[in-house]
UniProtKB/TrEMBL annotation:
It comes from the Bacteria. GO terms for cellular component: ATP-binding cassette (ABC) transporter complex. This is Putative HMP/thiamine import ATP-binding protein YkoD. PANTHER family: HEAVY METAL TRANSPORTER, HMP_THIAMINE IMPORT ATP-BINDING PROTEIN YKOD-RELATED. Residues 6-247, 252-462 form the ABC transporter domain. Its EC number is 3.6.3.-. It is an enzyme of class 3 (hydrolase). It comes from Bhargavaea cecembensis DSE10. Its main location: membrane. Keywords: ATP-binding, Cell membrane, Hydrolase, Membrane, Nucleotide-binding, Translocase, Transport. The keyword Metal-binding does not apply. GO terms for molecular function: ATP binding; ATP hydrolysis activity; ATPase-coupled transmembrane transporter activity.
Amino acid sequence: MHEPVVSLADVSFRFPDDQVNTLNGLTFTIRRGERVVISGPSGCGKSTLLYLLNRLYPLNCDGIVEGDIRLFGKRADDYRPGEINRLIATVFQDPDSQFCMTTVEEELAFTLENLRVSRADMERRIVDVLAQTGLTDFRNLVIQSLSGGQKQRVATACALVAEPEVLLLDEPLAHLDPLTARNFVRWLDGIQKQTGLTVIAVEHRLDLWEGFFEREIVLGSDGQMIGDHTADSKAPVVFPKRASGMTGKPALSVSDLSVEISGKQLLELLSFDIGEGEIAVIAGPNGSGKSTLAKALCGIYKHTGTVKSPGTGYVPQSPEFLFLTNSVQDELSFSGLATTKMLDDLADRLKLKAIWDAHPFAVSHGQKRRVAIGAMLADNRPVIIMDEPTSGQDVAGLQELFSLIDERSREGITFLIITHDMEFASAVADSVILIKDGRLTGKFMAEEVWENPALLNAHHLLPPKGADRREPAFA
């Protein structure tokens, strides 16, 4: 057996202002070269566990740790601040949170400078990791000009350029288009086999990983470990059969919309209509302009052309940008338009009751997203745009989100949903708007897209599970 790289013995963790532990009595060992996935319901402490392993916690939050944590056989507390980051690299759930520099090259160089890598070796490492991650052409680009999926790839490159022994990944596929996600998994498989890298990932959707993981550690809702067993690929999420929604008069009409920022054309002359009660999915490759379109439709980005709508609500990809108050309850009731009964229903169905009094910035990524969705549903806007609403959601959360959107569409609410989750898109969509390179390919009935391999491939999409008959890569 390989030597342990991570050992936990009866480890519990509590944030300083909390009365109860986030993690409770965790005991396990991970050995060099293992591929381990950490799963469990949204908000159970999965990301917190990763942050204990890279020493971000308790150092950066004054958290209270009980039990024994050993990293490479050495007590975690005996490492100097930053020392463990030479051995353990992390890709965070929100890549923006880990960038310090302006361009991709500068960010990679900054990582290496902190590790005191020589100038002679720095160029080799940057060139190699850009080639490995398919980012060679991104070297001189401004990071904040990239899409969410492209930023995720840059964050992964920044982790790997350190040539670590352990790679921690917090839902790394969440913002990748389906084809890029599949390629990422296959690429990581090759890297791991070549280097013996230990991979520890937080993930809700094991079906996306095609059998990559050897072992699964399962956390329960109370932060206790309820399973440690051989991983399986898991079946995709199953949604109820949904009949087509309403397609009445147009609720959103877009004519010749284009967006140019700092002299760069991001969207070119898009025109389409979405009917009252219709659920339309926007799909396409990372960096194609999906989020730019969403921001233009709700007035965040200036645009030419016309957008007609009776009123538009927006759930952004980074939900924190929506928050205005100091509690989850106040976020949902902020508009004053929802009845007490509606708020209670949303709180129960989105599993927000347990964090009702918490600050919205202090909850997990998946919970933040549900708070933002709940606030927008409580606002009763006739048109609601959601950017990656399924990110960070467990199976129960995905199924409840599906039901809420389905019900509201039957009441006449129109939805425009950006998602890379093909199973969710297949279940919920009446129509699919395909975008590539800032141009509208067209608006299609959903079934037309799932049954057209050429159309899927051109937009970096894969058929929903069940329609895809190809064998998995790592069976």
